[in-house]
Amino acid sequence: MKLQGTKLILLAGLLLYIPVACKKDTFTTKPQISFKNISNTTLSATNPILFFEIRFTDQEGDVQDTLWVQKISKACPNSPGVQFISKNKVPDFTQVPNLEGVLEIGFAYNANIGNYPVITGCGNKNDTATFKFWLRDNAKNVSDTLVSPPIILLR
């Protein structure tokens, strides 16, 4: 299932040009991703926003393709709409070698808040979900998969 309206933000302020001599071993043709921050690991009606900050590096600086997100439910793995894979266009920016930056993506749990796509859990019970992320660049190089810690979804 594809989420409509997913907003993905590239933090221009954290987008850095790093000379070849610095951090040479962290930049590869295949994008590298890691978590910078996860806003919360328990979501409820009073605390519904889930926000991920994903740090990336790329040798060619061409990560302007897609950030994929997959939500996997533990409590109701076969429920339609609870699990999804979403394709999120990375914003366009000036390509520079040895690029480092942060991608932000957020979700709202059972709530219509701003432009955040809505995620759901099992309707009648608490749920635990994990989120998987992978980044593809313009040359179709794909990062390793990044897996979140368990996110608790309280009904």
What does this structure look like?
The chain has 155 residues and is mainly β. The protein has a single domain, classed as Immunoglobulin-like (Sandwich). The protein has no helices and 12 strands. Strands 1, 2, 3, 5, 8 and 9 form a 6-stranded mixed beta sheet that branches. Strands 4, 6, 7, 10, 11 and 12 form a 6-stranded mixed beta sheet that branches. It is elongated, with a radius of gyration of 16 Å.
Keywords:
155 residues; mainly beta; Immunoglobulin-like; six-stranded mixed β-sheet; 0% helix; disordered N terminus
How many strand units?
Answer: 12
**Class per helix and strand makeup:** mainly beta
The percent range for helix content is under 10%
Major beta sheet summary: 6 strands, mixed
Here the CATH topology equals Immunoglobulin-like
Domain module tally: 1
Q: Give the amount of beta strand, in percent.
A: 35-45%
